[in-house]
Amino acid sequence: MTSTFKPEMKILLANPRGFCAGVDRVIQIVERSLEKYGAPVYVRHEIVHNKYVVESLRTKGAVFVESLSEIPNDGQPVIFSAHGVPKRVPEEATKREMFFIDATCPLVSKVHKEAERHYAKGKQIILIGHAGHPEVEGTMGQLPQGAVLLVETAEDVGRLQVENPDNLAFCTQTTLSVDDTAGVVEVLKEKFPNIEGPHKEDICYATTNRQAAVKHIAEECDALIVIGAPNSSNSNRLVEVGKAYGCTKSMLVQRGIDIDFDWLNGVNVLGLTAGASAPDVLVEEVIDAIAQKYNVKVEIKSLVEENVVFNIPRILREAEAKAEIGAAE
Predict the structure, then answer these.
(1) 107-191 — its CATH code?
(2) Rounded-to-integer distance, Cα 279 and Cα 273, Å
């Protein structure tokens, strides 16, 4: 006779979690472009770092490419991802007379403008970020080669050689660890007392809030699961924050099927959150997968409520307005 006994599992569901305003906006841009212009709609790089989202948009007609050279001159829209792109990309698209829509997150665009403003004032710029991340490549690509120096750690700052230590400014990637970045900034200011920083912190509200929500629950948890992609910076930072704030057993999963149930042995209280590019449907999927093995009780632990919304580009807003008028008639 098969036993139906399930051990108890309390899940502390962190809030805020999952989609941020920038991710929600970029997905709307792709979906509405498909509605207005039909398939295919080309997207340079993964629109956000989440396989489920990318595959969902691909089934609707989005074609993902890494280079504009992969796109035929067929007049269909080209969308630049939320991470932002170097200036050479829209310049190349303009030369080829491509119709492109820039879906860069407004908070990433803010960092681009800051870097350009500092450069216009003649300052050398130091960018705190992860080498090879698309957002970092996009920010560095706003300015001529060599204008931006990249650092990731306090040790990198110690090795830094600059032209004029009294003529510097710094910016940061938007999806970094709040605590780690504060440490790097502190070392930067110690080494270069006259360095100029952003008027408002570059790390975005969503990254900050999701990390704070994990800090809020970490000590209560025996383990923490973060739903997100392996190449998602903000999701990986959530795992690190969980470990740093008392939940040493923290891991990243993409889907319910990825859960290691041996790893969950002995866990009575599980923390659960999702990175800014992970949809809530994956949170439900993970809870359902755990409920197959455990008698689950979910408790939502809310820290702050988010109400940030970013407008989609005017060309798509106008299209939607016309469609609504047409439907009303």
Answers:
(1) 3.40.1010.20
(2) 11
